[in-house]
Amino acid sequence: MRSYVDDGIVEKVRGAGGELFAITSEPQHLASQANEHWELNFENIGDPHQEISRTCSERGWLTLYANRGSLDFLQGGTDWEVEHPKGYFQPGVIALTNQGRILYRWRSIPSLNNLNGTVARPAAAYVWSSIQESISANSSSDHAPLDENPVIDQGPPPRPLFFSALIANGWFLKLKSFAYSPGVAPVPQRFKKALSRWWLFGASWATAFAMLPTVPVSLAFLCWTTWIGYQIKKTAASLDVQIELTANSGSAT
Questions:
Q1: In principle, which of 78, 131, 138, 157 could form an S-S bond with 161, CB 3.0–4.6 Å?
Q2: Mean confidence (pLDDT) of the chain
């Protein structure tokens, strides 16, 4: 979202007579907090019960995916209580005219290619360019089709590298998410810092094998790999529980 400010897209949208809003599955107090810390110049709206996103689907505008898996993984990476009573919805972008004509729409479809929706958003400048093309089109009634191949802002790291960073972020005892928390460094900085810990971790094991009896060290290493393997499997399973937010998708308790 920050790129819409940095690239000047917010002012371009307003210059064209429009407005930009961010909608999140977080409660409003966290949405407002993120707005302040990220220094956004447009409004963040909390939608924890997914009323706005479901309305968009009911009107045929845009149907998002939502994660309904366990929140334990996210909670382990934050210092505040995760509040997603109906799960958290995946990213989407929609641009509408006052008459309800769709100028642009995109949704994240969780997959291995985007690390279950963690990365790969349409670049802000690309979105604005697509909106301008729709505005300039001769038809005043045709809706823009769902964009299935946008220019993305950031490609995903390899999945093994992603999980390696999560392991290191949890100090090799568990997988810890890079979830937003007030005052913490941006994710790319924390991601690189976590990966740098592998050098010390590897050196520690090498020293242990060189200076201590081989059998107990080998058993300890086997126990660690078994535990981390279980953590990876558990985390991957929680990220894979995805549904579409249609009118008939039901509610989570």
A1: 157
A2: 85
What is the enclosing helix (H) or strand (E) of 32?
A: helix 28-37
Q: Are strands 43-46 and 21-24 parallel, antiparallel or unpaired?
A: parallel
**Domain-located, residue 146:** yes
Do 188 and 148 share a structural domain? no
End position of a domain, from candidates 156, 187, 207: 156
Q: Which token pair is 244?
A: 């579409």
Coil, helix or strand at residue 208: helix
Residues 122 and 216 in one domain: no
Q: What is the pLDDT of residues 155-179, one digit of tens each?
A: 888 888 989 999 999 999 989 888 7
Query: What pLDDT is stored for residue 194 in this prediction?
Result: 94
Residue type, 239: L
pTM attached to this predicted model = 0.79
User: In this structure, are 64 and 173 located in the same domain?
Assistant: no
